[in-house]
Amino acid sequence: MTSTTLTKGGGVAPYLAGTTSGSKASGAASSRSGEKSGEGKKRVRDDRVAAAIFLIPTFVGFFVFYVYPALRGLWYSFTDFNLMTVELA
Fold first, then answer.
1. What is the pLDDT of residues 21-62, one digit of tens each?
2. pLDDT of 74 above 80
């Protein structure tokens, strides 16, 4: 048996067809595009700001509806707090 992965039909798995191992694969991909490393670099779009904008409401909801009530319940468990009666001072 060879080092390639065979499928049920006996053919080579499609994700392994035409691939090489090691750093030659990444070098071949850059040489095929016609660019040398370091030349003609385009500015890559940074999506961190957009990701933060979408994640902020999620974190706010998580803290408001999960973390704060859990910490408040933990605090109340160590105090002599009674929700049913009101002590007048």
1. 554 555 555 455 555 566 677 777 789 999 999 999 999 999
2. yes
User: Rounded CA gap, 10 and 7, in Å?
Assistant: 5
Tell me, yes or no, if the pTM score tops 0.85: no
Query: CB-based contacts of 20: which residues, under 8 Å, 6+ apart?
Result: 28
Cα–Cα distances (Å) from 82 to 17, 68, 88, in that order, read: 70, 19, 13
How far apart are alpha carbons 77 and 89 in whole angstroms? 23
The SS3 assignment for 53 reads helix
CA angle 40, 41, 47 (to 5 degrees): 155
Output phi, psi for 55, to 5 deg: -85, -25
